TrEMBL record:
This is Vitamin B12-dependent ribonucleotide reductase. Its EC number is 1.17.4.1. Belongs to the ribonucleoside diphosphate reductase class-2 family. Catalyzes the reduction of ribonucleotides to deoxyribonucleotides. May function to provide a pool of deoxyribonucleotide precursors for DNA repair during oxygen limitation and/or for immediate growth after restoration of oxygen. Keywords: Cobalamin, Cobalt, Disulfide bond, DNA synthesis, Nucleotide-binding, Oxidoreductase. It comes from Microlunatus sagamiharensis.
Length: 962
């Protein structure tokens, strides 16, 4: 009998008896909040889609399923990822799932049946309300369970619902080999696990036989090879693992430097011609690449770092100090290794265990691979995340009441799942059923903050994040206490009752110290305070059903399922997004949260349009027309021109951490120029801010990363070429030739007004229609301004006649910002940052082809309106002919477009570059900077960061996140 079978056979009776013997009152009576009484499926419009997925590098079709059914408001990306990742049954077989209804029903019906079987509902009516409410929330993308639920629940497979596992290993060969075995089973199912190796004696200690111990780092080598082999075996997603070592372990320096040394090896092999890119055929020869490493530091060590004193490393068998090191020297080595290769991260041991609800049952020694779940050894946690943006009303207020109701329902469902769940090992199953750890969290925080006009790195943004997190966890524990009154507290509660209630009071005290900045945060905070009062009172009477309630996971694949703009607690990745279209193709669009944020900040429609157009062209808001500099922070992103500073990320984590049972999956990104000292300070500040864990990533610190095409081309151009025989050549001098304008030429004179300043522009053309001269009239004859404009006109005209392309002038002079600036009287150019900005935009519209203008992002009002209606700036052939006849005379003059009334859209979109396949690649193309992320091993597209993991927008594959 396998471990999985034994766990499955042993779980039913235990859970059933808990429900029966521990019940103190009738089940839950549920009322409708989201559903209307009509089945949720009958309230939406459904459509059939063809899901075809190809590898963009090879052109090979990797997935194809036709006629899948989804609501019409689900994006192509969401439906593609759900179809490829979560639909069960062999492709082409009758049992293959064909639509979202089947997927949701498979999961929700299983939850409802288990809830009825285990006594959670007062009656059948409440069970039906539970089913409809849960279905409505999933259907409308208000939340999602973690991936294992969608993989397994309601199928013939073991009903594994947990994404996060923590293992344990002792100082014996039997335990070490069992570690390899258990980890392998977890990886086989596509999940990840973490463990602490600090019980294994160091290489500086003796074995009972008299020999010297191998030490934990040597055993990491075998586990790493096993993980790499199983990971390449084609599981539902890549395996992930976390390895932790205590800072007082005698082998800590070897552990710290392990991956940095391997990075040096990667560089040497790469320089020798081996393929060392991520996924390369030779990278597998390098060790320790399949795990995240973290050092578990305690307060004693951190104080020694602050004071510059020595610190003792202790024997694993006797606990005696066997070596003394300089704390600051060791701290510098940790920071240097993180600077070199992003490992190790830091876990703050005393902080973690000070918030531990079950200390009588054991310490918290480790975490899951992404560092958000921290609990007892041999335990697991199932996760679910809410889409915060779905709770933002049309009037830009947060619907805290509906958010509360959603949290109550989701926590109930998550607890029910433990009753029927299977587990990879018997010990994990036993611990999970006894402590019932849950991990509710959220996604789209970054989008919510932007939409409500809050900067991510601002007091208001942090206060709002803290209030929402406090409300979520408070409501979760309140519902947990209510469930304890119905189906009994968790089995380990009696032993840990005092400690659990102490931690609840710590959460309540943190809520009391939360300072509101605005009315939105204040209203949410008031509900959170009320929830924590309920936690204390109800928990005192009933105990708690769950040892843990909340974490902040990276929400990789499920974030795409919910159509989230941002994942987990992360800010927006970039302001310009890559969007797939129904029927194929893709569009480059400005994040739709931006117009909403600008409206919230009080900008007029015309200004919003101009700002959105500017972002579409530039990818950032610096010098955007009409945007106040004090509002720039609202649009700060993880990458780009105004990237959020490292400590901005740390401060946001600190705002949420006191209201979480677990920790936060997040990596603090630093620029390539960051120093070792800066990384050391980030880690130090994480401890002072009370975080439980922290990881950093310095841009381009790893060798195994994809190079952009531009870099590859430059490398080729710079490569030395073989020397040739010397030859004598005639020296040829090239010089530009001026093409003078004909004596008689056609010209166009146009009046304009920019910010109230009026002027005239006369442009002359060659016989072929090309622009050859420009004359500007602004100000009175003889004035300084008139003289400067005459000189400028002559300079531009001579440049044009010597062959300088008009496109070059347009690139150089558009977006120049100086007064006068503002509204114009030109319906095609509603806003201008300066007269120069207006002049050269107008010249581009008059003399450049559509394709050339499209490259520059300059369109007429008619073209922008057409794009919103048809998805393309280009007119249909018949429409193009009509426009040509109506807008141009035989002489080539254009009609006065001021008389044409055109409704200009706020949104800005255009076809995505053919070289871009994800938002990461679009960002690189737009800004000219690289995104340091791996290529997806499934479909070949470039992934993007998601918490401490990476996620692929093309197919939904992740490096281990939920």
């Amino acid at each position: 009998m396998t471990e999985t079978t034994r766990a499955a056979n042993g779980r039913g009776d235990t859970a059933k008896s808990t429900a029966k013997n521990g019940r103190k009152s009738a089940g839950l009576v549920l009322e409708r909040v989201f559903s209307s009484g009509v089945h949720p499926y009958d309230e939406v419009t459904w459509e059939r889609r063809d899901v075809v997925q190809t590898n963009w590098k090879t052109g090979e079709t990797v997935f194809e399923q036709h006629g899948v059914e989804f609501p019409d408001f689900w994006s192509v990306n969401a439906s593609t990822i759900v179809t490829t990742k979560y639909f069960r049954g062999a492709l082409g077989s009758p049992v293959r799932e064909q639509g979202l209804k089947q997927l949701i029903d498979r999961v929700v019906h299983t939850y409802r049946k288990a809830g009825e079987d285990y006594g959670y509902f007062a009656d059948a009516a409440s069970a039906e309300v539970f089913e409809h409410e849960l279905t409505w929330l999933l259907l409308h993308q208000h939340f999602s369970f973690n991936s294992p639920v969608w993989f397994n629940v309601g199928t013939q497979s073991p009903q594994q619902v947990s994404a996060c596992f923590i293992l344990s290993v002792d100082d014996s060969m039997d335990s070490i080999l069992n570690w390899y075995r258990e980890e392998g089973f977890i990886f086989k199912g596509g999940s990840g696990a973490g463990l602490n190796l600090s019980r294994i004696r160091s290489s500086k200690e003796l074995l009972t036989s008299g020999g010297t111990a191998s030490g934990p780092v040597s055993f990491m080598r075998g586990a790493d090879a096993s993980a790499g082999t199983i990971k390449s075996g084609g599981a539902t997603r890549r395996a992930a693992k976390m390895v932790v070592l205590d800072v007082d372990h005698p082998d800590i320096e070897e552990f710290v430097e392990t991956k940095a040394r391997e990075e040096d090896k990667i560089r040497a092999l790469r320089d020798a011609g081996f393929d060392m890119d991520l996924g390369g055929k030779d990278i597998t020869s390098v060790q320790y690449q399949n795990a995240n490493n973290s050092v578990r530091v305690n307060d004693e060590f951190m104080r020694a770092v602050e004071q510059g004193t020595d610190f003792g490393l202790r024997s694993r068998t006797t606990g005696e100090v066997i070596e003394t090191v300089d704390a600051r020297d060791l701290w510098s080595k940790i920071a240097l290794a993180a600077w070199q290769c992003a490992d190790p991260g830091i876990q703050y041991d005393d902080t973690i265990n000070d918030w531990h609800t079950n200390p009588e049952s054991g310490r918290i020694n480790a975490s899951n691979p992404c560092s958000e779940y921290m609990s007892l050894d041999n335990s697991s946690c199932n996760l679910a995340s809410l889409n915060l943006l779905k709770f933002l009303r049309d009037d830009d207020t947060f619907d805290a009441e509906r958010f509360e109701k959603a949290v109550e329902l989701i926590i109930t469902a998550m607890d029910i799942s433990i009753c029927f769940a299977d587990f990879p090992t018997e010990s994990i199953g036993r611990t999970t059923r006894d402590y019932r750890q849950l991990g509710i969290g959220y996604a789209n925080l970054g989008a919510l903050l932007m939409a409500t006009g809050h900067g991510y790195d601002s007091d208001g943004g942090r206060a709002l994040a803290g209030a929402i997190t406090s409300l979520m966890t408070g409501v979760s524990y309140r519902r947990s206490a209510e469930l304890a009154g119905i189906v009994g507290p968790y089995a380990g509660f009696a032993r840990n009752a005092d400690a659990h209630r102490r931690v609840m009071r710590k959460h309540q005290a943190a809520d009391d110290s939360l300072r509101d900045v605005d009315a939105m945060g204040s209203s949410i905070h008031a509900r959170a305070t009320k929830a924590w009062d309920g936690v204390i009172k109800t928990g005192e009477a009933n105990g708690f059903r769950n040892a843990q309630a909340s974490v902040l996971a990276p929400t990789g694949t499920i974030g795409f399922m919910m159509d989230c703009d941002t994942t987990g607690i992360e800010p927006d990745f970039s302001l310009v997004k890559f969007k797939k279209l129904v029927g194929g193709g893709s569009m480059q669009i400005v994040n739709q949260t931006i117009p909403r944020a600008l409206a919230k900040l009080g900008y007029a429609d015309e200004t919003v349009e101009a700002i959105v157009e500017y972002i579409a062209e530039n990818g950032h808001v610096v010098d955007a027309p009409g945007l106040k500099p004090e509002h720039y922070e609202v649009f700060d992103t993880a990458m780009g021109r105004r990237a959020i500073k490292p400590m901005g990320h740390v401060r946001m984590m600190a705002a949420a951490q006191p209201f979480l049972s677990g920790a936060i999956s997040k990596t603090v990104n630093l620029p390539e120029t960051a120093t070792v000292e800066e990384i050391a300070d980030v880690y130090l500040q994480g401890w002072k801010y009370g975080l439980k864990a922290l990881a950093v990533y310095r841009d381009n610190c790893k060798v195994g990363q994809p190079l952009s095409d531009g870099k590859a081309e430059k490398k080729t151009e710079d490569a030395p070429v073989a020397a040739a025989e010397p030859t004598v050549v005639e020296k040829v001098v090239y010089k530009p030739q001026r093409k003078r304008m004909p004596k008689s030429r056609s010209s166009l004179t146009r009046s304009f007004s920019v910010g109230g300043a009026e002027g005239y522009m006369t442009s002359g053309a060659y016989e072929d229609g090309g622009l050859g001269e420009v004359f500007l009239k602004l100000g009175k004859q003889g004035s300084t301004l008139a003289g400067v404009m005459d000189a400028f006109s002559i300079a531009v005209s001579i440049g044009l006649q010597y062959g300088v392309p008009l496109e070059t002038f347009v690139q150089k002079f558009t977006n120049l910002k100086f007064e006068p600036a503002g509204l114009t009287d030109d319906s095609d150019i509603r806003m201008a940052q300066s007269i120069m900005d207006y002049i050269f935009r107008r010249l581009a519209l008059e003399y450049l082809t559509f394709d050339d203008r499209a490259e520059l992002g300059i369109y007429t009002a008619t073209e922008r309106a057409r794009q919103v209606e048809t998805g393309s700036y280009l007119p249909e052939p018949e429409e193009e002919q009509i426009e040509s006849e109506s807008l141009k005379s035989d002489a080539g003059d254009t009609v006065d477009t001021d008389a044409v009334e055109v409704e200009v859209p706020v949104a800005s979109a255009k076809p995505a570059p053919s070289t871009a396949h994800t938002t990461s690649e679009l960002f690189e193309r737009l800004t000219g900077t690289s995104v340091d992320a791996p290529l997806c091993l499934t479909c070949g597209t470039k992934m993007r960061p998601s918490g401490s993991c990476y996620v692929c927008e093309g197919c939904g594959s992740t490096s281990g996140c939920s």
